[in-house]
Amino acid sequence: MNDSAPIHHVKVIGAGLIGTSIALGLKSAGYVLTIEDEDISAEEIAQDLIGQNRGFDLAEGSDEVIPELIIIATPILAVPNLVREAAERYSAARVIDIGGLKSDVVREVEKFPEIAKRFCSTHPMAGREISGALAARGDLFEGRIWIYTPLSGTESRTVDSALEVITALGAIPVLRGAVEHDRIIAGISHMPQVASSLLSATLKDMSVEDLGLAGTGLRDVSRLAASNPDLWAELLHANRASLLPFLEEFTNILNDLSTSLQNDDLRKTHEILEAARVNHRRIPGKHGGKKRDYWYLPIIIDDRPGQLAAIFDACNEVAANVEDLSIEHTPGQESGLVTLALSKVDAMKVFDHLLNAGWKVHQPRESIG
Amino acid sequence: MNDSAPIHHVKVIGAGLIGTSIALGLKSAGYVLTIEDEDISAEEIAQDLIGQNRGFDLAEGSDEVIPELIIIATPILAVPNLVREAAERYSAARVIDIGGLKSDVVREVEKFPEIAKRFCSTHPMAGREISGALAARGDLFEGRIWIYTPLSGTESRTVDSALEVITALGAIPVLRGAVEHDRIIAGISHMPQVASSLLSATLKDMSVEDLGLAGTGLRDVSRLAASNPDLWAELLHANRASLLPFLEEFTNILNDLSTSLQNDDLRKTHEILEAARVNHRRIPGKHGGKKRDYWYLPIIIDDRPGQLAAIFDACNEVAANVEDLSIEHTPGQESGLVTLALSKVDAMKVFDHLLNAGWKVHQPRESIG
Fold this sequence. Notes:
The structure is a homodimer.
Chain A: E1 9-13, H1 17-28, E2 32-36, H2 40-50, E3 69-72, H3 79-89, E4 94-97, H4 103-110, H5 113-117, E5 119-124, E6 145-150, H6 156-168, E7 172-175, H7 178-202, H8 208-211, H9 216-222, H10 229-238, H11 240-262, H12 266-280, E8 295-302, H13 307-317, E9 324-329, E10 335-342, H14 344-356, E11 360-361
Parallel strand pairs in A: 1-2, 1-3, 3-4, 4-5, 6-7
Antiparallel strand pairs in A: 5-6, 8-10, 8-11, 9-10
């Protein structure tokens, strides 16, 4: 091992959403990037996006420039071999991956202690529901959690390189062990996928007309069922050791609920729903942390250009900061419902102001309607 | 039975969210309203909201004005008795309820054929996640589905009265039989509640720190777990005959998935996820119908007043109509991500316009990022 050089040149292997977004973000942060993919078409799109022809591979004539950091951004099954290949080809480079599971990768790479010194496994918690280089953006990771998982033999300088990249992309590094990581992912990512898919599959005998009577509840809970089965079957199986205990617990509670309904044991059903409600309070809200204390201001508008601009102008006139907003259309009608989320003080200010200006605005309320 | 009079005077029994919203909406539509509730405080709030002192009960001196329509808007267990009481007290009035389940109410009222003539059961598909008169608004039902369920003996004039009210409130009447209604509700409303609560309860042993690493998937799928267990235990038990077959199917698919994971049978897991994805396409999207064909335009803004107003002014300048919008804050940073949903043509117009004006706007894309 040489002493590590500072990172200037970064090679990204894998031109999907995450790899391309990393390349875009690091380029903006001043690094020199190259990106490659076994899919030539994906590689070319990503290279166009990051403007690689102005990058290092063609910069200094014909000789290849040596990257100080390699980022493996491929599907998880390919990661261990690519880590070894990259580490062997660039004998001074540090290597990180961004795979969604850690145990297998860590176990495989730890078989090669010399390589493990220069490898740190990582996992950005962003962007899994969209894919492809065209969906990439350099700010994808800003403010997102990015887990990093050093191996037992990972050198501290390698960890520093991983942290440098995570920080340069605006993400928040969080340390977790490999087994711990995979268990957490089973709970917060794989179990929601399972619950959502089970619900959707269960309703397969209902008619489209009857499903069309559903409100937002079914829509939200079944949303993840739209995910790619190729990707998710692979993920669930790669993580089955961590997932199965959660599935067993889920099954137990389901069986308890079925029994309490069969026996008309209202008290027991209530107990299950109450435990679910109590635990739900521990799950982070919309902004990845605890729920903010917004007030909601409903306004009925005409469904035509200029209405929202006028509302925001009005907010601006009273120096109110709109924290969030929803727009609900009424099918077949010319009106829409806009709900602004504001601080309580701002909600009151905007309410008075809009009311005086003749808007169909309703009293601010503490829960969204 | 007298010939039915046209409806002028309506009495609402039950001053919760639905009852009060109905009263507000019908008052706006020109009807004369009164509302009552066994909870005097709730009754007074609702009466204030609808301005009942300008209503009919005090209008013409001291004698009670006779309503032509009674709307029972109480919890479901109280409905059958209240229907009988109302029908007996006002012998020419039509009566409807708005309960979330139909079989029990219909069976109870059908025991009294003379009353059944003047009763039609109904169920507005709106507003179940909020409660109380203070959350009421007269436009709650605009554009929403409102199921109506005549009894075998219901007179057509009674059905006409129900349809008159539904239509006056801007809702869309949909006919369903009682048993059919309850089976549909088990699928589209009670099963999402069950799946969401099971997921939340399953994660009870995870630490708050680990739950804090979760993204939007867990949040959306577990959202309904926050629902009121008193209300939901009662609903699930009242509908258990319709719910149990769905629960059995859900359990079967869960067991299949557990088995395929235990046996590392990737093909079978894929098949389950694929069936879920295929069925998900039949579930209505955000606006209660098929998904709209929006393009999404991401814009990075400073998190301060005036930014959104400026964006909407810019949209207005190019006559673009913003169909939807999301705002994402980056914790601990001064910037936010605004994503506008627009038609493809408008997205391109706004993109060019904002880019020229120096905004940090990204290429419009077909899926939300």
